[in-house]
Amino acid sequence: MKKASKVVTVLVFVFLYVPMLVLMIGSFNSSSDLVVFKSFTMDNYRALFADGVLLPLLLNSLIISVIASLASTVLGTAATLGIHRMGKRMRRFTMFLTNIPMTNPEIVTGVSLALLFAFAGQLMKIKSILGFWTLLIAHITFNLPYVILSVQPKLTQMDPNLTKAAMDLGCTPVQAFFKVVLHEILPGIISGALMAFTMSLDDFVISYFVYGPNFVTLPVEIYNYTKKPLHPKIYALFTLLFLAILAVMLLMNILQARDTARQRNSRQKARAGQPTV
Amino acid sequence: MSKELIRLADISMAYDGEVVLNNINLYINDSEFLTLLGPSGCGKTTTLQIIGGFVKPTAGSVLFDGVRINDIPPHKRQVNTVFQRYALFPHLDVYDNIAFGLRIAKLGEDEIARRVTEMLEVVGMKGFEERKTDSLSGGQQQRIAIARALVNRPKVLLLDEPLGALDLRLRKDMQVELKRIQQQMGITFIFVTHDQEEALTMSDTIVVMDKGEIQQIGTPEDIYNEPKNAFVADFIGESNILDGIMRADRLVEFFGRRFPCVDEGFAKDEAVDVVIRPEDVDIVPADGGHLCGTVTSVTFKGVHYDIIVDFHGFKWLIQTTDYQPVGAVIGIRLNPEDIHIMKRSKYSGMFGDYSSYSAEYDEIGDAALAGESEEQEEGE
Fold first, then answer.
1. Which of A252, B8, B207, B219 has the lowest tally of Cβ within 10 angstroms?
2. pLDDT tens across A216-237, in order?
3. Would you say residue A115 lies in a domain?
4. ipTM
5. Is residue A208 part of a domain?
6. Which residues in A have their CB inside 8 Å of a CB on B?
């Protein structure tokens, strides 16, 4: 039984990571045929960085994901503070509404946003409304629930007396937020922002419905590429993207691990009532 | 005593239609140590939060130095609070925690350093400036929380069950310590607790509360010796409470027998509650006492024995230093000053019967433990 479960675990990881591995090896392969490994080369990376189209598109993607994740972090944190102050029943209902877009099929979200923009465009008499702004609005929209979900538990864990203590010591409610509450929920805000950033960077489905010819993001353009045979430099690009996202995920995990360790520590100490050091 | 500082006039409070405080009237003097005492859910924490400004009463006025302060937000009030579980700021070290209020008030760093050091000395925590708050023990965090509040030189310090999370030994030390700090600073402390012993030890004045109403206000001696109703008599210490009839001034009848007592001012033949404290009863040989009963249970308590004695089917708790075996027939004597007479109240008949002694003792223990967590949610 134990053996079987080990075998299954290994198989799961093989299925998960072998495709990525093939892609990575392919990115260093001098043959354009994935099946045959001719020799190790960096040519594909050179070709990628020499490419005049892909890099500006990557920049576009970065611009959208940075702005969208920042905006959704600010909006999402503000929303979480509001949700936190609601009554129990209202709070549960709002969180339910917040969770729906995450489970909603992306294609539905994409199409409905596209319809909304088309409708708004007609109202405002703008001919081609799709472009940078529609992409940005769409990205902020689908990022928001992730930020709220990652900030909310931090706020619930926080001792509610901390805000009161700050006000008791002379803070206005706004000062209390910036001087005390923000520090407490910062790990949640950061992990929410990182999550939003990665979601935004690799989003294809929703972007596909709301992008315009003047502003294209990388995943959308790559989809257009796949209609023809892929140039190996795309493998190189994918490898880099994978590594970048991996780095962000690792950072997020490290931050979270440190945060939980800190909390466990202080809770244990509080319970034992004993000083350490 | 000295002059009046805070007055609560006809304060009522309701959350979602549920009455938490019902017509509270209370004045608090300058440099007084006043304790709000009661079981969890009695409204004591809400009363404190009304004084602190965190909760707005649904009716009535809060007066500070004669000025109505209902609408003044907490950060503009001359009171500071020591919260349940301290609520120290985890991202700041000890020094910065204490300096927090002074920095908000934009004092110079020199002045801040001077006052923080002075406060650390008052609470006996010198040398801990650089420590992170989560590296401190409960008692140390407690002291820092007190310093953080007192450094702002408030006129009133509010303490919300500050000793609840400490173990018994530390708690006793902190009781003495708090009283010392209060006398040294010469300011008003308003202290909330469900622990009657804590209240008796520290307070100048105790306010006993239950179900959103004040049951009695008085000095610890008054509250203990002259409880106003069965609730107070039972909540403060142990009490045997019997049904009696006042036959005349200074003469009460219970168990079909008349006893001289020291209370007067009741109507002739008025039904009353008679309180007899378990430590006031004198045990004598069976034939020499006013009443004669059988010992049904003995518990060793260290300083004394708790014995339960059955008198005509009504069981009393008696505390004695002389061992009495179960089954022994003993007599008791009651001196006039051992008998305290109370007017009948809605609490009559609810307390003071030790017929189900052991079970009740356990319940009290559980309730005290459960009380802590319940009390926290009260404010939300």
1. B219
2. 998 888 888 777 777 888 888 8
3. yes
4. 0.79
5. yes
6. 159-162, 164-172, 175, 179-180, 183-184, 262, 265-266, 269-270, 273-277
